[in-house]
Amino acid sequence: MYRQFAKDINQLDSAYRVLKITLTTNPNQEMLLEAMIRNLQFQSDLLNRQLLIIQEIKQKNKGYEKSTI
User: Model-level pTM?
Assistant: First the structure.
């Protein structure tokens, strides 16, 4: 699961870098800025999902530890 997360975040980051590079030469900067914002929102969503997964795993581990004591 972590490999897929890393792959997805790397793809989004690469796409963002391309958008950022083309910003200065693109005649439609408004559209490009909107695409950059959407990309950052996707990155934020992905990171939030990863954080939730980590927190759920930690909670389950705590529950398991308490039940084995």
Answer: 0.82
